Amino acid sequence: MEVARLAMRENQENNVIISIKGVQSGPERESETIELVTEGRLESDGEDSFTLSYQESEVTGMEGTLTTFQIEENRVTLMRLGEFNSQMVFERGRRHVSLYHTPYGSLSVGVNTREMSARIDQRGGDIRIAYDIEIDHAVTGMNTFEISVREAGARSALC
């Protein structure tokens, strides 16, 4: 009985409200801040492992793209599937290289994670990641994003 209850809990999906604040800056450009609030899904994949997903909209310029965060203890993987396909791996103090596919072509992109914290449970939580983007081994942008996840029915999601 306890095993069945645990299995149900591990595969539980919740409708959530996701608040995202992203700041992008570069060596030769001013900082740009983007804020977005959207509905999504939070799924527990087991102890200390979660999947957060939402559909991009016209506001982000990536309409028709599904964005998914795979959240583990020391790693967050961002995957986008749709018109824009990419995978970015964030681990504090590590550099990961991946391909970023757009309708205009593909790029090899390096991601150096400076800071990362992810505190998520079945009811929601917070993610903060600060990272540098590089193309051809040259830093082209410094980015930070903060994500707050709350149950869709929770009062705090509206505050």
Chain-wise SSE layout:
Elements: H1 2-10, E1 13-26, E2 29-46, E3 49-55, E4 66-71, E5 76-81, E6 85-90, E7 95-102, E8 105-121, E9 124-135, E10 138-151
Antiparallel strand pairs: 1-2, 1-10, 2-3, 3-4, 4-5, 5-6, 6-7, 7-8, 8-9, 9-10
Report on this structure.
With 159 residues, this protein is mainly beta. It has one domain (2-152): Lipocalin. Helix content is 6%, strand content 68%. It has one helix at 2-10; strands at residues 13-26, 29-46, 49-55, 66-71, 76-81, 85-90, 95-102, 105-121, 124-135, 138-151. Strands 1-2-3-4-5-6-7-8-9-10 form a 10-stranded antiparallel barrel. A hairpin with a 4-residue loop joins strand 6 (85-90) and strand 7 (95-102). The protein is globular and about 40 Å long. The protein starts with a helix and ends in an 8-residue tail after the last strand. Mean pLDDT is 85; it is low at 1-12.
CATH architecture: Beta Barrel
Give the averaged pLDDT, no decimals: 85
What is the fourth-level CATH superfamily?
A: Calycin beta-barrel core domain
Which structural class do the helices and strands define?
A: mainly beta
Strands in their spatial order, largest beta sheet: 1-2-3-4-5-6-7-8-9-10
Order of H and E elements? HEEEEEEEEEE
Number of separate helices = 1
Low-confidence stretches: 1-12
User: How many angstroms separate the termini?
Assistant: 39 Å
Strand content: over 45%
CATH class value: Mainly Beta
Q: How much helical structure, as a percent, in the residues?
A: under 10%
Overall 3D form? globular
CATH topology: Lipocalin
Number of DSSP strand runs? 10
Largest sheet: 10 strands, antiparallel, barrel
